[in-house]
UniProtKB/TrEMBL annotation:
It comes from Streptomyces nigrescens. It comes from the Bacteria. The chain crosses the membrane at residues 41-59, 132-154. Keywords: Membrane, Transmembrane, Transmembrane helix. This is Uncharacterized protein. The keyword Transmembrane helix applies.
Amino acid sequence: MGVAVAAAGVVVEAGAAVVSFVVAGVEQPQWLDLAAPVGRLLLWVACWMLWCTAVSALIRNRVGPVLVLCLVPLLGERVVGMLLRKVPGVDLSGVGEWLPFTLGRSMMVDMSAMATEERNFFRLFLGTDVPAGPAAAGFVAYTAVVAVAGFVVYRRRSG
């Protein structure tokens, strides 16, 4: 249901953009070029809905899931990535690029057509240079694992 609401929102926003461009006399963009980014956005929204539900099932109190889902993507994964680079004798520097929310951020940006300066900026911002397609697949895989875990815990508790 949430994905349908997000998709309907995208259609309404696109319609509003078309009307705005016509009223302003601005040339229409290539709307088909936006299909892949909008598709990734809808996938990202669907995954986040599952993350929220699953983490709420895994953590029984009300504050825990909110803290986890706010702090882990913003701070936790960056700290884990830095700590993985500091492990002596083992090169784990690439593991931080494949953490779930890093992939979630990366799936939203296609850096393949960017200039080197832009790519470097986005790499610092995103924490990875994994292409959008593999990043989306990785984020969906992490989402599936967490959703199944949340479902199993929920079923076990509810009997």
